[in-house]
Every structure is written in C-alpha cells, then in structure tokens.
C-alpha cells in the first residue's frame, strides 16, 4: 500500500457509523483503497493473482492441488499440465512463487502435517508417515529429523515436556 493508503482507510471509518453515507460513499472509498493497494510495492502480485491467465494464478491451481492432495504422488508433468504451462516454465514459476521446488513444497506440507498429527496424538510415527504419503518409515524419520532437527519421537517428547 502506498503512503496515502492509510489515509484512504481512515476516511472510510467515519462513514461506517452513518448508514446513509455507507451506501453512497463506500463504493468510492473501496475503489480508492483497492487503487492504493494495487499501487503499492506488492500490487503487481495481487494483479497477477487476480488475472486468470497470469502465471501466478496458474501456479495457484497446482499449489491448491498439492495442499489438498499432499499424500499422493504426482509427476511434475501433471502439475505443469494443471497449470497449463510447460514443465520448465511451471518449475521456474513455482519456484519463484514458493521459493521451493514442487517436491520440496509437497515434502514440507507432509512434514508439517505429520508433526501436527503426532502432537495431537493421532497415531504413531509409522502410521502417520504412511498417512501423509511416505512409502517408508525410515525415509520419513530421516526427512523429519533433517527438517525439524530431531527424529519424530524425540521431537514430540520435547514438546510434551513443556
């Protein structure tokens, strides 16, 4: 948001207490606030998200799929197809949006979900590892320890002692 953005928001607040002004002025104020946001340093990103054909909007389709289906394996070619991009363009845009490769992104979601499930007592490490999509409990433990600094059992025990 630009420096004028807070002023636009401040102008809008008094109208909230006057019903007759809300109806007449809110469209103008809302338009000004959106204008100020779009003129700000991250306005380009908001425009890209809102533009259906922009690469960012296309990547969001794959990100949403990965968030909802993180336990499933999917080839990068299928993710690129979902986003209507070539594999190389998809990979480049995905990494620019998330700072991770698609595989790293999926792995992070799996590990964070697994940790949350372990903390909630929803099962043991092996059951949860399979539940979040790992094919091997050993691989899960290695990646968990690499990401969180401790193997699952020690990490969860550390939280339970607090």
Strand residues, percent: under 5%
* SSE order: HHHHHHHHHH
Query: Helical segment tally?
Result: 10
Strand elements, count: 0
**Which residue ranges are poorly predicted, with pLDDT under 50 across at least 5 consecutive positions?**
none
Largest sheet, in brief, is:
none
Which structural class best describes the helix and strand composition? mainly alpha
Radius of gyration over C-alpha positions, nearest whole angstrom: 22 Å
What general outline do the C-alpha atoms trace? extended
Relative helix content? over 70%
Give the N-to-C terminal Cα separation: 40 Å
What's the mean pLDDT score?
Answer: 86
Give a concise summary:
This protein has 162 residues and is an all-alpha fold. It has helices at residues 5-15, 19-39, 43-50, 55-68, 76-82, 87-98, 102-119, 125-131, 137-148, 152-161. It is extended.
Structure in words:
It contains ten helices and no strands. With 162 residues, the protein is mainly alpha-helical. α1 runs antiparallel to α2, α3 crosses α4 and α5 crosses α6. The radius of gyration is 22 Å and the shape is extended. The protein is 74% helix and 0% strand. The longest helix is centred in the N-terminal third of the chain and has 21 residues.
């Amino acid at each position: 948001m630009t420096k004028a953005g807070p002023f636009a928001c401040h102008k809008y607040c008094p109208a909230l207490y006057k019903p007759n002004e809300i109806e007449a002025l809110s469209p103008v104020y809302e338009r000004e606030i959106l204008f100020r946001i779009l003129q700000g340093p991250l306005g380009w990103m908001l425009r890209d998200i809102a533009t259906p054909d922009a690469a960012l909007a296309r990547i969001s389709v794959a990100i949403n799929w990965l968030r909802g289906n993180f336990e499933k394996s999917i080839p990068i070619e299928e993710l690129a197809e979902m986003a209507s991009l070539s594999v190389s363009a998809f990979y480049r845009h995905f990494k620019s949006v998330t700072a991770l490769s698609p595989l790293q992104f999926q792995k992070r979601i799996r590990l964070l979900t697994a940790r949350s499930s372990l903390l909630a007592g929803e099962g043991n490490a092996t059951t949860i590892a399979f539940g979040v999509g790992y094919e091997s409990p050993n691989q899960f433990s290695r990646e968990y320890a690499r990401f969180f600094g401790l193997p699952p059992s020690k990490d969860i025990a550390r939280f339970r002692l607090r």
